[in-house]
Amino acid sequence: MRDSKTSSVLVTGATGFIGKDLVSHLLECEWRVKAMSRNGPGSLPLSERLEFVQADMRDELSLRRAVSGVSVVVHLAAAKSDEADSQDINVHGAERLARLCLAEGCLRLINVSTQSVGIARKGAYARTKSAAEKIFRDSELHVTTLRPSLVYGEEKSGVFGVVLNFVRRLPAVPVLGDGQWISAPVYVGDVSRSIIGCIENDCTIGKTYSIGGPRLVTFDELIDRIGAAIGVQRRKIHFPFALSLWATQIITTLWAECPITVSNVLGSNQNVDIDIGSARRDFGFDPLPLERGLALVLGTRGDLVDEPDRRAAEEFSFISRYLMDVDPPPELVNRYVAATRKLLGDAAASEWEFVRRHPRLLPYLDAAAGVFSPRSLLRNKILLAAAILEASPAYAEFFLEEREGRFRVLRVLIWQGLRSAVKLAVGVPLLQLARRT
Amino acid sequence: MNEIACGDVIVAGSGVSGIHAAFPLVEAGRTVTMLDVGYTDDTYASLVPDKPFAEIRRRDWGQHRYLLGDQFEGIDFNPVGATSLIMPPRQYILRDPANLAPLHAPWFAALVSLARGGLACSWGAVSFPFTDSELSRCGFVPHEMSPHYEAVVSHIGVSGCQDDDLAVVRGSLKALQPPLDLDDNARAILESYRKHRIRLHRAGARLGQSLMASLTEPLDRRRPNPYHDLDFYSNPGESTYRPELDMRELMLRPNFRYERALVETFEEVSASRVRVRARLLQNNESVEYETQAVVLAAGALGSARIVLRSLGLFDVSVPLTCNGHIYFPSLLPRQLGKRSTRRRYSMAQLTMIYDPTRDGQHLVQAQFYPYGSMLFFRLLKESPLAYRESLRLLKALAPVFAVWGIEHEDTQAPGKFVTLRRRGDDSDVLEITFRVDEDQKRRQRLHENHMVRLMRHLGSWSIMRVEPVAGSSIHYGSTLPFSDQPRPLTTRTSGRLSGTQSVYVADGSSFCYLPAKGLTLTLMANARRIGYNVLQRLEAK
């Protein structure tokens, strides 16, 4: 084990899904962290023990700067979609990184790969990641390779994010394939903990571990579990594998930003062996069961036993959707619940009961209340939600001022003004109705 | 009851008045004991990172703690009031958990601080000295004050323009640091003023950069203002003057003692012996101190309470003054779409002084503030539109949004007074009555309208008028006003309380009226003057 107070860990791809989570965990464990990303620091936490370095896997010079002075590298950076530079980032990038690590005297490396390297028919992602695994294994570095299964957490992109979005919004969920694909969904925090486990246990050097949740589930089962966690039941529409693959190939050529990639389709239709036994043995890996992880991620308040608290959590989610079209993370839900308890107590108003029954009418009632009862419970609840959303880095960008051109501002003024007027017109009779019921 | 003989001087209160009165005495080697309740903040001070506002907003996952408060004390559904500008990290200055300073003030936002450093812990740092005529009306001898002003200014560090257009409507100051950098909106207003200067002068208005007790050059171990735009939350490098700076300095002196106790009464036992009764915070026990002189610096309300109680004058009224205070949220349409540097501090940028009578006797003052760091949700509350649309409008207009705050002078009047009432349980409560007469209100309204028109000339369009409840300016004075006659419940020009030999009043209680200016700088200068007066008296004995 290394002395965490003095040595520092380089995390490549630190602003990505796993990267962000890992950086926080490392800081909590008192490590010094060098966070590397080709973009800006994004919403990385502020800490004296965190240094941000902007570097690119394709740029030797910047990469050398990143590697210099660290004692461990956690390699997360990768081209995820089938973009042209997969080869350059995932394969040549790995070569560069391995070479520079040796040159700079940093011998320990945790390579975070993917379970897809085990599938037979590989897409660009699986192919390049598998090549990278080989490069690291063949180098003189002390490498541990991790192959996570389906990773879930507070993230909109990736297989889990897309499925969650479908389950939330669509009456029937399209499934690319027969739905019998088996994975071991693992919570992102568990992946971070497994990485730290490897850093801190030298017996993991030279080994490859599967990282997954404690249970295997089929894709159909996963959809049902997510549905159950947010309290809905969804039908599934299965598209045959060949058709899905073909359609995805066409769509991704036309639409580069498409959230589903060919590699996703390939990866989520071929089973691989997932055995986390060796991870449990070697560094005490102990992942969360799916239900607990989903509850954590989805903010489904299994932990809120109080009826008023549960109601407050529900309110916060529809107010946030109304205000900013967002589904806030559980941390903010809890904060709103606590603030409601503290500031609004058990205040009640007939118009608010009406809103709870018809959340879709909230915009109109808000507009009318703004004019006729600006300090009502209805307005205060929305204001409270806005305050909670504002004081979080997750949505800071939305609340920070930004200079824009005159014409754009004028357009915003006219458009938002018109919307307010229309909402007010609809809202006034509704408010009367709400007060009477 | 324990009795403690206690050195030369007792100072009641640790606000800027107490500190600046204590300094000359401590420096001359006198033993000084400061009695103070002295609440401090032990939660928030270390939480705010030393980084710019925009960066911590994007990256600090703990920001809700100091932006909203652990108990959500930063979220207020009520209309704008006295505490609206006091962010959670500074709200400890209003704590009074044991109700040690009970007030009854239904229509008046009376703020009393029992914190170490007092109300100036959240001071806006605008440091204009009073003009000679304002000083005379307050009851001072103007030339007596100027050395003290200079000494205080070089001690606390004030930055500003030496000779801009405001120099003639403020007293002169030599020891200024170079001015702070203005933000883009303030700079545009100032440029526009320079273009329309003649016209504005003719209309009775002058504009210039605010004098700020915030550094632009290092001073002792303090750093210049880093322009983090977090001045309402933290004070990195101690660039802005805060009382705790001097408290730390005082605590290091062997002849200074600080005790956490609430002063209740004083009693003169002989020409040079005063007995002070106080309640110790740690065990709620009463103690008596004996000393040669007492300096009252518990604030206009606190000192009045101590004096009235000591003299047994219940149900007797003393006057109260408090500056009227109005906000005008404004937009600067000409600034739309201009590039911005985003480097700024959050306190007052510009000061406009308006002279309605053209004789310098009744100045009205306006301050121009940026808004950004106060967060959208505080502003959202004032919007009559649906919140979703309001948010988007705010986002579009935020870069050109700013706030003017107008302050009016206040004179003693029959409708404004303070009375100490007995309560059943051997305690008492300070009752505040504050009725501004219609005539004064009408006059103020007139001046405001005029100033709003002038602001429009400068490219700043007021979108609404926000009038906080009376008392919100947090400037209180005149409870024990200066008088050259030895009348009871007044203060002699030397600072001595009439009818006593060695009790001095060092805070705003003695100001006969409040000009339309921040008081803090003058409070410090006056307290320093009184410190020297006390010293002189001790030496004469």
Question: How are the secondary structure elements laid out?
Answer:
The complex is a heterodimer of chains A (437) and B (541).
Chain A lengths: L7 E5 L4 H12 L3 E6 L12 E5 L5 H8 L4 E4 L10 H19 L3 E5 L11 H15 L3 E7 L2 E2 L5 H12 L2 E5 L5 E2 L2 E2 H13 L7 E4 L5 E2 H12 L4 E5 L1 H14 L7 H6 L9 H7 L6 H9 L8 H18 L5 H15 L5 H8 L4 H11 L4 H14 L5 H4 L6 H31 L1
Parallel strand pairs in A: 1-2, 1-4, 2-3, 4-5, 5-6, 6-11, 7-10, 8-13
Antiparallel strand pairs in A: 9-12
Helix pairs in contact in A: 1-6, 2-3, 3-4, 5-7, 7-11, 12-13, 12-16, 13-16, 14-18, 15-18
Chain B lengths: L1 E4 L3 E4 L3 H12 L4 E5 L16 H7 L3 H5 L35 E2 L27 H7 L3 H15 L27 H12 L1 H6 L2 E5 L33 H9 L4 E15 L2 E8 L5 E6 L1 E4 L2 H12 L6 E3 L1 E2 L2 E7 L18 E5 L9 E7 L5 H5 L6 H11 L3 E7 L8 E7 L5 E7 L3 H20 L3 E2 L13 E2 L25 E3 L14 H21 L1
Parallel strand pairs in B: 1-8, 2-3, 2-9, 3-6, 4-17, 9-20
Antiparallel strand pairs in B: 5-13, 6-7, 7-8, 10-16, 11-19, 12-15, 12-18, 13-14, 14-15, 16-17
Helix pairs in contact in B: 1-8, 1-13, 5-13
Q: Can you put this structure into words, describing what you see?
A:
In chain A, the strands form four sheets. Chain A has a seven-stranded parallel β-sheet, sandwiched between helices. A two-stranded parallel ribbon of chain A has the order 7-10. The radius of gyration of chain A is 24 Å and the shape is globular. Chain A is built from 18 helices and 13 strands. Chain A folds into two domains: 8-296, NAD(P)-binding Rossmann-like Domain (Rossmann fold), CATH 3.40.50; 301-436, no CATH class. With 437 residues, chain A is an alpha/beta fold. Chain A has helices spanning 17-28, 60-67, 86-104, 124-138, 158-169, 188-200, 219-230, 241-254, 262-267, 277-283, 290-298, 307-324, 330-344, 350-357, 362-372, 377-390, 396-399, 406-436, and strands at 8-12, 32-37, 50-54, 72-75, 108-112, 142-148, 151-152, 172-176, 182-183, 186-187, 208-211, 217-218, 235-239. With 541 residues, chain B is α/β, with parallel strands linked by helices. Chain B is built from 13 helices and 20 strands. In chain B, the strands form four sheets. In chain B, strands 1-8-7-6-3-2-9-20 form an eight-stranded mixed β-sheet. Chains A and B meet through helix 12, helix 13, helix 15, helix 16 and helix 17 of A and helix 2, helix 3, helix 10 and helix 11 of B.
